[in-house]
Amino acid sequence: xxxxxxxxSNFIREIIKDDVKNNKNDGKVYTRFPPxxxxxxxxxxxxxxxxxxxxxxxxxGLCNLRFxxxxxVKEGAEYAESIMNDIRWLGFEWxxxxxxxxxxxxxxxxxAIDLIKKGxxxxxxxxxxxxxxxxxxxxxxxxxxxxRDRSIDENLDLxxxxxSGEFENGTRVLRAKIDMASGNLNMRDPVMxxxxxxxxxxSGDKWCIYPTYDFTHGQSDSIExxxxxxxxxxxxxxxxxxxWYIEQLEIHHPQQIEFARLxxxxxxxxxxxxxxxxxxxxxxxxxDPRMPTLCGLRRRGFTPTAIxxxxxxxxxxxxxxxxxxxxxxxxxxxxxxxxxPRRMAVLNPLKVxxxxxxxxxxxxxxxxxNPEDASAGIRKVPFSKTLYIERDDFMEDPPKKxxxxxxxxxVRLRYAYFIKCEDVIKDETTGxxxxxHCTYDPASRGGNSPDGRKVKATLHWVSAEHxxxxxxxxxxxxxxxxxxxxxxxxxxxKDNINQSSRVILNTCKLEPSLKDVSVGYFCQxxxxxxxxxxxxxxxxxxxxxxxxxxxxxxxxxxxx
RNA sequence: UGGGGCGUAGCCAAGCGGAAAGGCACGGGGUUUUGGUCCCCGGAUACAGAGGUUCGAAUCCUCUCGCCCCAGCCA
Length: 560
Hints:
Layout (H helix, E strand, L loop, with lengths): L3 H4 L3 H11 L8 E4 L9 H16 L3 E6 L9 H14 L7 E3 L4 H13 L3 E4 L3 H7 L17 H12 L9 E4 L14 E5 L13 E3 L1 H11 L4 E5 L6 H11 L5 E5 L11 H9 L14 H7 L3 H11 L10 H15 L2 E2 L1 E2 L2 E6 L8 E6 L9 E6 L2 E5 L19 E4 L4 E9 L6 E8 L17 E2 L2 E2 L4 E8 L26 E9 L11 E4 L3 E5 L9 E7 L3 H7 L1
Parallel strand pairs: 1-2, 2-3, 8-9, 10-23, 12-18, 16-19, 21-25
Antiparallel strand pairs: 4-5, 5-6, 6-7, 11-22, 12-15, 13-14, 15-20, 16-17, 17-18, 21-22, 23-24, 24-25
The chain binds one RNA strand through α6, β6, α8, α13 and β19.
């Protein structure tokens, strides 16, 4: 953990700190994470999760998990399962504090009756279209519903009949009687209850009227005794409405605090658009390693620690912003550099024969498992006459700054020997380099020459006869544009998908120690990046995902 | 003057009247059997702009400009 993780201050933490100091709410801190069970969590949600659970932890309080399930036609239990799984994976626990807004349907109904009795709510027979047409515009006030002044008794009677199923969907709603001329559209007699003859994933067919989110959310927080209701910026102008309900109802008043949600460049965070990518098969599923979903990031090899460090570093404020994904990638590298075991793997193999090496000899070379962690120990890697090296590590006609292998040049094979390239074999028809012939210096065993001569490069390698075959999937940004929604004339945001966001390599050669590795195994392939075993792996096929590449100065020079 | 927010380096972001933290990215140098890691060094005469208050302002006041959100019986 970076040292800033504990001290990182932000305006919400300051507010809470002050409240605790002033003994507001008896000095208690109670938060909640309120997802709607209608999709998968992404890293933007993780920001909210980390804040809500994190503040509770930091201030000795509690955090509830509450599903805001007020819309039976869109929600389902299968989503709730995945959401709980992702929150636990991030490292948070709600113990026995799992709630559903639907648990409060009875209470909410009583609240509605209460407001009717206070003359603060009425049943409106206008259709959805009519309500919209009488709401006014951003600059002009709305006009009162003709049903606005019904008697309390009539409202009570009608609302009860709405509940008993007497009316069709959409024929009537219960509305709050506030102010059709308010500059805040949310206050123009908002709908509290709508008729929905639909089966709810928890309450079944008990109800045929359902409260709207606006009539549910604030009171749910109130019922749970939440002290700090943290939510995103777009709910800022709903706050006056939530406050209004709570004041009319005379119930506990949580303090709502809004923050700017997370945006990352080269990807999208819209649930609707992510769904579109999945359903139209632009990606392989919600857990495709290119997705910003938590299950996607997990499959890609991102860890809870890396994600949480990242979220701590970017802070929280009210300014709309777009964070560079390089920051997220940095956090994974930072963590894994310290802990990931190092292994050698050749992704694009080029055959190398050491002409002066004995035909049948195999030597076991000692390799360090992690130079950042001596306790990780060492392992043996077999070396023999025929090897594979990375195609990119050889150039027949190298430019000035290239200091890897080239004709006549000597380099080091990591933990093995110095080798010198003596001959280049090419395919006669294509001209492609297919094999290199080298000689080795037996005195350089282990990687250093007793005469003290230096080489400019150290290459990773794998012994051909001992190598394991594997598939490796390389990932890059899902969208080539920083802002995927930036559309050119006649194009659509999906045209911005990076065509090479996934590159599959089928002929990779791994060092034999990787033989029995299983799903989730994580390591660094030296000089290349961090990789993890994908769940597509099985007994006869190993599949690795590249989580993130190492920083690569040579690559950067070439791109200049 | 519809309402509500926000404007500090390329990207995030501290700062709360005493005089610009930190991270990422970027550039330079050193170490190095990963062109990795690590270690140095480099950046805003300046905080959207203009006025004003003050001994002193990114921080207070005024005006201007720019960006975001709101017209679902979605959340």
